[in-house]
């Protein structure tokens, strides 16, 4: 058997919708992107959504919308993918990494409180594996140090405290205490990259909560300008006969979604309840098997929250990095693709060069050192899930035999 890690789940319906777009005469940002945005906002229960070409762009444009840049600090987790932190660097602000809570994949809420200074303008919590952070605790942390907050833009002032920008690349469709991912943080950034739960090949979106005294249409228009050259009219508006003239209001960026991508997204969104359900079934199969052999696994469904079931994270109790790496190699030998989520940012060259040291993030290192991510996607059959479980058990046994 060959079991891939996270192949895209594309049916004839997606293919037909893409072909429809290709034949329609309009392939870039247009009616399908607008419809996709409307449906994303509906499923997140927000007033609006803006689609872009990635979650990275969505996070960066949100920082720019908020007017965050040089001289500012933005907090995120050491235990994440580079994009959560690199966007802070892109806008010229200082990256502040905090450790995870002991035995948790989420950031340490007390460490967040400690990291807040009078330069802090935003925090980017990461909804790892599709499990949303405890946003009650994040808002508590932010409120606790409210007196230190010095707004440097009108929007920051209207929010009145540090802005919470969720890296929800994994958590579309998840909920926490009755709130959907998308309506919990001030701004929420989703990814529709090829390996994510819902895909447009590349793609992303941002949703936001209503801000008292701020018009949502105004935020929407600002995002349109930021993502399309600061141009006063989008390409579709310009195609109206005679309506050639436009103005460039700022030398902005280019990260809009195309209708080809959106057509994939529209069908994926229709199919999404089934996709989530299948992921849940697989997670329950894995949980059953892992509990019986004493593995630590991340809980995806509790009374407090339901995840989007994006990644299945397993920790090999009492094992170290080399043991884990050997297990991954043996599983690869059996045709099973696995991964590690994540090698903490302070272990990567770019972040070492920025001065970060893994010794300052002991909890994140402990989570990383014995973590294995098993294949989890809606194309997996029950037999394949069983094969993965068997492969993991055998691989651990084989490495154990070498180690003693
Ligand atoms: C995939 C991912 C991103 C980036 O998403 P893109 O759409 O590729 O920009 C950001 N954060 C995390 C945690 C991710 O896994």
TrEMBL record:
<dbReference type="InterPro" id="IPR000653">
    <property type="entry name" value="DegT/StrS_aminotransferase"/>
</dbReference>
<dbReference type="GO" id="GO:0000271">
    <property type="term" value="P:polysaccharide biosynthetic process"/>
</dbReference>
<dbReference type="Pfam" id="PF01041">
    <property type="entry name" value="DegT_DnrJ_EryC1"/>
</dbReference>
<comment type="similarity">
    <text>Belongs to the DegT/DnrJ/EryC1 family.</text>
</comment>
<dbReference type="InterPro" id="IPR015422">
    <property type="entry name" value="PyrdxlP-dep_Trfase_small"/>
</dbReference>
<keyword id="KW-0663">Pyridoxal phosphate</keyword>
<protein>
    <submittedName>
        <fullName>Capsular biosynthesis protein</fullName>
    </submittedName>
</protein>
<feature type="active site" description="Proton acceptor">
    <location>
        <position position="196"/>
    </location>
</feature>
<dbReference type="InterPro" id="IPR015424">
    <property type="entry name" value="PyrdxlP-dep_Trfase"/>
</dbReference>
<dbReference type="GO" id="GO:0030170">
    <property type="term" value="F:pyridoxal phosphate binding"/>
</dbReference>
<dbReference type="InterPro" id="IPR015421">
    <property type="entry name" value="PyrdxlP-dep_Trfase_major"/>
</dbReference>
<feature type="modified residue" description="N6-(pyridoxal phosphate)lysine">
    <location>
        <position position="196"/>
    </location>
</feature>
<dbReference type="GO" id="GO:0008483">
    <property type="term" value="F:transaminase activity"/>
</dbReference>
């Amino acid at each position: 058997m060959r079991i891939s890690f996270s192949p895209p789940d594309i049916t004839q319906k997606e293919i037909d919708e893409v072909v429809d777009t290709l034949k329609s005469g309009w392939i870039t940002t247009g009616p399908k992107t607008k419809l996709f945005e409307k449906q994303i906002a509906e499923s997140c229960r927000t007033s609006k959504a803006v689609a872009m070409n990635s979650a990275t762009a969505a996070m960066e444009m949100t920082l720019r919308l908020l007017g965050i840049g040089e001289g500012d600090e933005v907090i995120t987790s050491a235990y994440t993918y580079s994009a959560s932190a690199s966007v802070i660097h892109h806008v010229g602000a200082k990256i502040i990494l905090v450790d995870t809570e002991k035995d948790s994949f989420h950031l340490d809420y007390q460490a967040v409180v400690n990291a807040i200074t009078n330069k802090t303008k935003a925090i980017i919590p990461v909804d790892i594996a599709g499990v949303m952070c405890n946003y009650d605790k994040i808002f508590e942390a932010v409120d606790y140090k409210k007196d230190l907050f010095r707004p440097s833009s009108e929007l920051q002032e209207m929010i009145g405290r540090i802005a919470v920008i969720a890296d929800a690349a994994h958590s579309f469709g998840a909920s926490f205490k009755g709130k959907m991912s998308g309506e919990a943080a001030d701004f929420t950034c989703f990814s529709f990259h090829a390996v994510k739960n819902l895909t447009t090949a590349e793609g992303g979106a941002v949703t936001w909560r209503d801000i008292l005294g701020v018009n949502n249409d105004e935020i929407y228009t600002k995002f349109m300008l930021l993502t399309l050259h600061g141009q006063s009219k989008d390409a579709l508006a310009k195609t109206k006969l005679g309506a050639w003239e436009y103005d460039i209001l700022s030398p902005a960026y280019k990260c809009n979604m195309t209708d080809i991508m959106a057509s994939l997204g529209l069908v994926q969104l229709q199919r999404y309840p089934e996709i989530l359900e299948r992921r849940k079934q697989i997670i329950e199969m894995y949980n059953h098997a892992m509990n019986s052999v004493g593995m630590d696994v991340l809980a995806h469904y509790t009374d407090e929250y339901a995840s989007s079931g994006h990644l299945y994270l397993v920790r090999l109790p009492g094992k170290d990095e080399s043991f884990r790496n050997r297990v991954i190699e043996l599983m690869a030998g059996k045709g099973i693709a696995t991964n590690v989520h994540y090698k903490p940012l302070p272990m990567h060259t770019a972040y070492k060069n920025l001065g970060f040291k893994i010794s300052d993030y002991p909890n994140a290192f402990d989570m990383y050192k014995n973590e294995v991510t098993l294949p989890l996607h809606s194309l997996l059959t029950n037999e394949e899930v069983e094969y993965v479980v068997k492969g993991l058990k055998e691989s651990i046994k084989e490495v154990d035999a070498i180690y003693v």
